[in-house]
């Protein structure tokens, strides 16, 4: 099916989506402003490095390599800094950390760091801080800096009530034992700000943006220098992208998307755009894919926009009489649209360039049916989808499967690598 392109940029809103028309899978392209190169996109967004051919297990961490690991599967990559990964797991009821080489899985330290009921994290420069609480209170509790080469603990400040920790700049965001108190402190214990939330809080830094999620469904985008709200909402979602963030909220049956620019981790409090009646299609991706929200039963086909949250403008849009209204899959630097005949077409998110297509999946082959799978990640050559039992990589440029890989657990992408958590083991594919 041919693609037609035009160089015009339409305004965002329900009127725009409804007026796209049903040409032969028309791409309306616009200028992408300020988009970073793929290798500059840190961490997530489903961007894979390589995997054009069938992978193999590069390394695995399990009870043989992690002292004291229990069999409850509570193991994860807690933080990363370049090729150094902090892996955390439970040993009994306490949390311990090891620093591993992301290429080989080899431990950098002779013994893990026992944080007890506390936590460890990297700061922005790659220094490791640990809030150690071997008991809920006691003289051994404190904040320590960890020698990256040896794992030796150097005391930085006395006492600690910290149960969770996130690095930001040269400081750390602490969450106290109750889960309600959040503060920013230097390694020496100097407090820059502190605040208390109405429900237990979980902070995270994504694309340099500090977001606190509370157990009552609220989201807070904080100014990291002051701890004050830049954006706050209830029963909403905040999704960060390399150039900005999107806040999705529902009220009185209406879904609203607000777009904000981010520069060097600083969120501009003035929205670049606000639009009612649109929703972000879920999936890890470098740009948001949006479509009409709510009851679309009267729509005859799918209509989608790819937006730059930093400008609030449409990068490109697509509509077609044969385009499905469901099963769209944003995936890393690509997006896959389903047609009504269940075939698929792939485009590059950054500019709407056509990557290729896949035929309708054969009956009896659920591993090849993207409708039933979730995006793991994609590179320029392949898009990897999966479920709890198998990963399947598709090569849209040739219209076929590139490889399959059996799993028994969950797959994610960390710094361009596919990471598997299967029971009480953590593995990386290469």
UniProtKB/TrEMBL annotation:
SUPFAM superfamilies the record matches: Quinoprotein alcohol dehydrogenase-like (SSF50998)
Name by which UniProt lists this protein: PQQ-binding-like beta-propeller repeat protein
InterPro entries noted in UniProt: PQQ_rpt_dom (IPR002372), Quinoprotein_ADH-like_sf (IPR011047), WD40/YVTN_repeat-like_dom_sf (IPR015943)
Domain Pyrrolo-quinoline quinone repeat: residue ranges: 187-318
UniProt organism field: Gordonia liuliyuniae
